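Methods, example record. To illustrate the input and output format used throughout this study, we show the complete record for Periplasmic binding protein/LacI transcriptional regulator. The sequence lines were provided to the predictor; the line carrying structure tokens was produced by it.
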Amino acid sequence: MEKRTKLLVILLIMVFVFLGYRIYNGVITQTVYKSDVEYVIGVSQANMREAWRVALINEIQEEAGKYPNIRIVTADATSSVEKQEKDVDRLLDFGIDLLIISPCDSSRLTKKVADVYQEGVPVIVMDRSVEGFDYNLFIGPDNNLIGKQGGECAVRLLEGGKGKILELRATAGSLQSEERSQGFDSVIRDYPGIEKTVCDLKNDMKDPAYDAVFAMEEELKRVSLIFANNDSVAFGAYEALKDRNLAEKIKVIGCDGFTGENEGVDLVRKGKLAATISCPTGGKEAVQYAINILRKESGVPKQVILRSHTIYPQNASEYLAALDRESMDDGRRITVGYSQVGQESQWRLANTRSIQEAAREFHMELLFDSGDQSQKKQIEAIRRYIKEKVDVIVVSPVVETGWDEVLKEAKEAGIPVVMSDRRIEAGEDLTTTYIGADFLEEGRRAMRWLKEHVKPEQGNVRILEIQGSEGATPTEERKKGFFEILKENPRYEIVYTDYGDFTYDGGKKVIEEYINSHNWDVDIIYSHNDDMALGAIEALEAHGLNPGKDITIVSVDATKEAFQAMIDGKLNCAVECSPLLGPPLMKAIRDMVAGKEMPLRIITEEKVYDQSDAETVIKNREY
Ligand code: AHR
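The corresponding predicted structure is encoded as:
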């Protein structure tokens, strides 16, 4: 090489190094000097081949661009677990302050994510969760619900609920595609006039979808609608229909709903797709929560499940306008009207304290009413709040049904309603979001713990169940989740069940009644909350029985009183249900008033405790 060329090459390398660039595994990356920035966020993406994932990275970059003190470093795992593990190590070597990861394989990346979290680097998991809870926050869509929305949309488009649907399953076999398909089927199965066939596609690309649909010449003659679980595939299908002169006859529904030319919303506006179901990436939320986590702010939940919308030509412009909505925050103090269930349990008292303290911390005006477990009283309180023109109404409902009328009144008055702790059955547009626990999972955890710790010996394991209040979400779901695991284990059976209303006296009464009418023949008590379990313990002891020893007792909540009972050897396991909903609730209200779209569900962190850790945990237990 000539001397001058050599000098030029050396100079270029020096500039390259000076700017912090290096080549690693064929990828050019830029080292970020931490003195320039406050936080470096590493993003490990499963692959950058799927349009949805590219959109996720773009959204993260765009949101991070609003904060001059944040840098994003990304890595593409090319769908390889081994590469993704190495990517995470490499990002840690860069000195990232927080990791955002969308794992390409949930179970095989669980350990890596847990290691990072335990090393003290906060982790946000996106789209597909890992196993267990060793991460700070999970953000993702509800794919089953997206499928359901697709099903409802199909029924609506097939006026009269009749016709043949062709479902195009992009990236067939993936969890996402299965969940969407199941959700879709759960709706159309109620319409006997609807028939469905499935075409599995290996990927989510437009051209292969075009080829597959174009080749179905004969079959298409009988099809009235195509449901594609991704917009690129839907677009490919539309083009094939157009080339077969069938675009007028067969309607196409897609999923994703991105904005931009030839993306889902645009295709709907142009009339190429009849509708699309949005599947938000959560990139924006990830950056915002990352900042909350890094700044150690309160109110960060454990799971955020994002909302999806059905976009038709008629509401597409409105949808786009809502995305650009300006902040409604005018600096006023926010007034919140809170309708609480009652005071039935220690959990409830801790929950009320948490709400009141958080309202003070977030400088909000809180109007609070305890409903004494009466729906009538709760409805009266909601009507009062409507009259008083509060900014937001929050309801922790005693039962799931019977709220439509009063919620419509709130909607007409323009007051958003947030569900806290418990959910209701009501029109989707009547409430804004749900903040609380995953009761189904609590039920599953209770039974999983039991099957690990109480093994069948002679005969079946006999379970007595004390349910909460009839018609309340925690009752329904704790029962359902428990049963889901129980039915996979035929040696366990529920021999008796009754309601204890979530109160100490209620639990005690269920056991007394059982003892008075049966010879004691129960191995396990599964109680839907701690107060009822403690009442049950008193009744058992009064009849000379040995709770925690002869009878294994599992309950839900994990209050301080439950820990004490575990230390005393009377209770065996407590599945956590956190009452500390105040901070995430107030944070969500503040975001909502500032014009941000509310996620579908905001779920709190929960664990399972037993006698082995009770002594340690009780020391710092807040409730
Ligand atoms: O809705 C949450 C449940 O209600 C708690 O588990 C129970 O203790 C409470 O009263």
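Annotations derived from this record:
The longest strand covers residues 492-499.
Residues 16-34 have pLDDT under 50 and may be disordered.
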